[in-house]
Amino acid sequence: MIDKFIDATVVVPTLGRVEQSDALHRKLHDLKPAPIKIIFVFQRNIEWEEFTKLSACGENCSMHINEISVVAARNAGLNAAQTKFVAFIDDDCSPANNNWLEELIQPLDKTDAALTTGPVFGWSSASGNLPFVKRAFLLLPPFLEPIGKTDSEISARASTVAGGNFCARRAELKAVGGFSHKFSSPSLYEETEMAMRISRTMDKGIWFNANAGIVHDQNLQGGMRNTNSEPVGSFIVSQRRILLQSVYGISKTTNARIMLYRVSRFIISLGKTIKNKSGAMKKWVG
To answer: Which carries the bigger pLDDT value, residue 1 or residue 124?
Structure first.
């Protein structure tokens, strides 16, 4: 007999997407097998109240925190969970298959992985999508730049996880302190920092399962990052500094990495500006 439920909690940090959260809850509820618990973590009380009236599960599948932060939301969901496994999915995503959760958890039982992740379909704006790299979620030194094919068909070891599609053993994730509150909102790189920290602490790897995919809705408005202003260059550098200092420690070498990262971003930005001006000039001349 196939079990109807799996010993897992699915945590969804959400902001500005009440109706989408209700629709996602129905999809998560219909998974086979389904999670024992689903927790939507709202960061605005008015949205939480609206959800509890709209959704059939009401307060049984949701909670509210008094802070706009994906880090705080994920940690709140982690602390509320009581199951063996905790999976995380974003509010602009949905499982690609009905057995998504089972596939996501499976490597945790069959390999030495500390974390599992899977493909993200429709993530057209993902940085690091390189045509010649067929695997997913690798990190390129010296800046820990994420590269890889986000919708890869190759199950293999990875260096980090997809932000809206990953799973861990609850006890291990809590043992390493969950997600770091050093990251601000809109947060960047908090999943990478957590992934490298738990992998290093537990001396275990990260596994990418090509069968545990989710679909990302690129067109949705609102959300954890988009509701706030888009991250600017200085903010992105500050978040990368936290990541690099966490992984490499605070040292002159790390400071040099940060400086090189800042310079590389400036060069890339300058190149884009020149290209845009050149294109505008050609149109004007023509």
So the answer is: 124
